[in-house]
Amino acid sequence: METLDQNLVSSWFDVQSVPQTFVHPPEKRPGNSIDVPPCKNIPVVDLGSRDRSHTIQQISKASQDFGFFQVFNHGVCKKLIDDIMSISKEFHKMPRKDKIIEGSKDPSGRCKFYTSSENYANEEVHYWRDALTHPAHSSENYMQFLPQKPTQYREVFKAYVDEVRNMGSMILEMLAEGLGLSKEFFNGGLSENPTLLSNHYPPCPDPTLTLGLTKHRDPSLITILLQDSEGLQVFKDGNWIGVEPISSGFVVNIGYVMQMISNSKFKGADHRVVTNSRAARTTIAYFIYPSNETLIEPANVLYNPPLYRSMKFTEFLQHFKSKAANDEEMSKVLSLSICAPNLRPTAGKWPGKDIDVPLCKNIPVVDLRGPDWSRTIEQISEAIQEFGFFQVINHGVSKKLIDDTMNVSKDFHAMPRKDKETESSKDPS
Ligand SMILES: O=C(O)CCC(=O)C(=O)O
Ligand SMILES: [Fe+2]
């Protein structure tokens, strides 16, 4: 059996041609779109601006239109950005045995070094990348499970995530405000599980055939990405557009979880990574994830009507793992399954809280065999004028027949679906 050691792209990338197992089918490979022009329209936002409400407007609009924006003046110091980038590059340059040892100290497997994707064994085609991932908590307890080589790794990581966490909170506060939610809305469970991912994409002999990462939408609340060079592309209005690196800036993108909570006001953006033949590319992603038990659902004020059903983050992840490759399938399982989409009332027609209105005691109940016939007629006439509705008792339909009819109807609806279909299609007309 092949080992991780042999499979790492960084161990053998120096080949003349792309191995077959990395060649994507024509409809998925990037072809000439490896060189799409970088998009000048993806908003670049000054997070340090004094005009906070303008900043909120900018990032909200970007989250609606693109699901992507870039930030500068974000509070993470330049030295830390340079240090985390250098230490990640050093990590990926180490001998493969060291990378494997350093990436497997966590017995729970949450710190992991892998190649292509976490699902290598089941992939039809592999991706041109190696990756190191681990929780982005800087707690002393967890430090022991992180790489000790390069020697500065733990120290740099800790300082970096402490600052990125602050930036993440600031962005989440602004996104919450932009959605009309309280500033603290995303604090706690919804953002409790940040995770770091250091991606390394070695140079590739033919970037038109392969991908660093396939088209996907992140399963996060938001993702904050540091990139050292071009390669990230966003799918917008049917075209791939490049996200140009800005010096000491971060790319922020909206993930599925934010899309669900914002009831699709903010859209997760599909993106992918292309490779290049010139130089290795390194990126460091900081994913803000909820804790497993946290409930994900459209926030109340945005119910209009709710497009997604509630689910725990663990359930969401299960769907994501089985359906991630197919956005349409994913949308189906996330959307309100209690109401099939074609049965869901349009805005203004859904009952909301009105499912529990008090029963009306005023709709007249008329005794059809009452002692005073003309009074009965009066009652019915009044009911028709006032309500257009009335109920009748003492009507001459026997109790037994009523019960029997109700019971056979219930029995019919309780039958297996196939039987109901067969039984209700005997009339050729
Ligand atoms: O490396 C990049 O540019 C993007 C990485 C990414 O999309 C991911 O890890 O989810
Ligand atoms: Fe991503």
Automatic annotation (TrEMBL):
> Sorted alphabetically, which Pfam families does this protein's record hold?
2OG-FeII_Oxy (PF03171), DIOX_N (PF14226)
Q: Give the domain of life.
A: Eukaryota
What Gene3D superfamilies does UniProt report for this protein, alphabetically?
B-lactam Antibiotic, Isopenicillin N Synthase, Chain
UniProt-listed SUPFAM superfamilies? Clavaminate synthase-like
Q: Any idea which UniProt keywords this protein has?
A: Iron, Metal-binding, Oxidoreductase, Vitamin C
Task: Name the InterPro entries for this protein.
Answer: DIOX_N, IPNS-like_FE2OG_OXY, IPNS-like_sf, Oxoglu/Fe-dep_dioxygenase_dom, Plant_2OG-oxidoreductases
Where does the record place the Fe2OG dioxygenase domain? Answer: 191-290
* GO molecular function (one): oxidoreductase activity
Q: Which family does it belong to?
A: Belongs to the iron/ascorbate-dependent oxidoreductase family.
Q: Per its record, how is this protein called by name?
A: Fe2OG dioxygenase domain-containing protein
